[in-house]
Amino acid sequence: MYFRAFFLLFSLFIFSSSLAANDAFIIRTKKTIPVYIENPQAEDLTNASKLLKDYVFQIVQSRLEITNNNPKKAIIQLKQNPQLHPDGFVISIQKNRLTIEGGTRKGTTYAVIHLLESLGCRFLSPDFKIVPKQNQITFPCQTIEDKPVNDVRIINLYFGENPEYRDWLRLNTIEEVYPEGYFVHTFHRLVPWEAYFTAYPEYFALVNGKRSIDQICPSNPELRNIIAQNLEKEMKLQPGKQKWSVSQNDNFSYCQCDQCKHIIAEEGSPAGPVIHLVNDMAARFPDKIISTLAYQYSRKAPFKVKPLKNVEVMLCTIELHRHESIETNPECADFKKDMEDWGKISSNIFLWDYTINFNHSISPFPNLHILQPNIRFFTKNHVNALFEQSNSTTGYEFSELKAYLLSKLMWNPELDLEQEKQQFLQNYYGSASQHVADYIHALETALKETKSKLWIYEHPVVHQNGLFSENRVKNYKAIFDRAEEAVKDNPVFLNHVQLARLPIQYAEMEIAANNMFSKRGWYEITNGKAIPNEELKRTLDAFEKTCIRNKVPTVNEAELSPENYIRSLRRMIDVNMEGNEAFGKKVSASVLPDKKYQEGDLAYLTNGVNGASDYNIHWLGWFGTDTELILDLESLTSAKNISINSLWNGKSWILHPAEVACSVSSDGKNYFPVGKIQVAGEQQKEDPIRNYLFQVENKSYRYVKIAVKGTKKLFNWHPSAGEPSWFFLDEISVH
Ligand SMILES: [Zn+2]
Q1: Continuous segment of H or E residues that includes residue 686
Q2: In DSSP terms, which residues pair with 526 in a beta bridge?
């Protein structure tokens, strides 16, 4: 775990309420109070009573004595009630008795948390909670009932790993709901092609006239029996689990055999054959829920077949933009229709939603305003389970706020979100809260004014003239300067403000890297000299300090650590011009780089700038091939050191080359070898940047040949094994 604990105990005394003693249940300070729990074997009751005991002591220093006999003496009682929603509760507050009844999953725990929240207690991030001290606890007499709108509420990533934080945010985990290995993409697990393909090719998808291991044929009757048998075996191994996924693998190759084609035509969607198969399984296992995906090729609902009652449909929003809500954005019309169509035929829909910038999770992503309308839209269309792929990792953009608001919305999509947001900001940023609110408002306003779109894979540079224009960034920085000033004497709030500031610092530095020698770049060229931007360097130092102090684990989905990100950024801005004989010289290549990156312009190899961690910036890429580079230094030299770099980003299919060999020549015909460097192994985990240094002894030369052999293919460990691999090169230097 990555979290530092600095729990803050507010020395805030709230003096006795104006309620008369007759209207309230009161716990006075430094008392001993008997508490009855009906069944000490029930985990949730034990958990709830411990939580209540712990917090009551912190708030008023009174001790709860928990027992499971003599209920009449106890003035607080905790019970389970199987009639309630498993996470729901009823709290009955009378003058002399507090009775808490909860559903059998977490109902009593959530009831206790509800009571503690009514006293001002808050759990705002895994390492920050608020417990107001009081001279007595006063609960006004009333009956409180509550239950969640969504039965399953998941926010993934690191925050959700803290069990107490998870309880306060009323969240589930994937592991709790789904059996191991049976969450999504299970066709392969149920029918491994390694075991069946050779003997029974007809069990697998017919794609372009050939059987393919990518997917199964959902219509094959024999295969259905095998799936049922394998499922039954697996269910015996994990008997406590109710939901079982029978769902497509993660690719687009659905079966087009005659039978499947016929069903697809009738149903108007490749989801047709899948739902027929899944219904068959649901009928064979009536006491289980069979879950399946409506994802990519199967996202469109079928016309005729309806999922059985014990079928769960898992619908994914991966393709959508995030600047406007689904219902109001005309670009989301397709998804909106699919959602509504599924909602008409199923009331058991699990929605997998994305509220994150996947590639740059640490970059500003102003989507707070669409969270509530989207969750309301899902709920209206019979979604009852939500998986929010969101920022919930230290350092990601507003992770604490987003995880908090999303969890509240999943419980109750109709709550007053603005009020929750304001309260959060006050509690989490103290005297800086208004400034942080101003920053959020400024971003949202800019989003509207510039009509910018938000996409879950975007690089901050796409917004350099809009959301992150020079003037706007200046304004955001001024707001954060005021925010830091407002809490400069409170290290905890100051740290929260600095965490909230990371995203705009990141965007600014990425934009600078992309415009290296310009007004917004790391260098400005004045009279032919590159003058470094000192203010940006200070930004990098501040960014580094905040990341290290908070142990920010990664800056993006490729799991790049801040340490590696900062190191490669420093390498890049440490321009390589003075004394570099390769600077500005011509390079040719036997196989040209792909035009996707820097338009394949070979001049990038000798422009004096080292590519940093992002392959989009200053790197040239070659795909599934080798190449030979020839550098012409224009005159003879006896420089000793020749070097070049390569990049590694396994998730993005980029591996280091298998081999880099260097030779030199004075005439461009006869080459003298100076060295060969190989990269051993399958490169499952590698340094993001490798440097290949060749030393030339006592030779004068004009031409340098660098022969690069790629690995050509992705190795077996890679999810896309066998597909072509990239290698990325940058900056040849000769010193
Ligand atoms: Zn088929």
Answers
A1: none
A2: 529
Token couple for 140:
């006004």
- Residue 384 makes CB contacts below 8 A (sequence gap 6+) with 149, 150, 151, 152, 347, 348, 349, 350
CA of 335 to the centre of ligand 1 (A): 26
Domains of the chain, CATH where assigned: 4-147 (3.30.379.10), 178-313 (3.20.20.80), 435-570 (no CATH), 576-734 (2.60.120.1190)
Taking the C-alpha atoms of residue 338 and residue 334, their distance in angstroms, rounded to an integer, is 6
| DSSP 3-state of 86 | coil
Distance 197 CA to ligand 1 centre (A): 14
Report pLDDT for 18.
Answer: 43
CA–centroid distance, residue 135 to ligand 1 (Å): 70
pLDDT at 4: 37
How much distance in Å is there from the Cα of 245 to the middle of ligand 1? 20
**pLDDT, tens digit, 9 for 90 and up, residues 100-132:** 999 999 999 999 999 999 999 999 999 999 999
Ligand 1 centroid from CA 557, angstroms: 35
Parts of the chain with a pLDDT under 50:
1-19
Task: Give the model's pLDDT for residue 557.
Answer: 66
Coil, helix or strand at residue 28 = strand
Q: How far apart are CA 107 and CA 86, in angstroms?
A: 6
Q: What is the pLDDT of residues 480-533, one digit of tens each?
A: 999 999 999 999 999 999 999 999 999 999 999 888 888 899 988 777 677 889
The span from the first CA to the last CA of the chain, in angstroms, equals 45
* Strand arrangement of the beta sheet that strand 63-67 belongs to: 63-67, 32-37, 76-80, 98-102, 89-93, 142-146
Per-residue three-class SS string for 281-318: HHHHCCCCEEEEEECHHHCCCCCCCCCCCCEEEEEECC
- Long-range contacts: 723-726, Cβ < 8 Å, 24+? 723/653, 724/623, 724/624, 724/653, 725/623, 725/624, 725/653, 725/654, 725/655, 726/594, 726/615, 726/621, 726/622, 726/623, 726/624, 726/652, 726/653, 726/654, 726/655
Calpha distance 249→270 (Å, rounded): 14
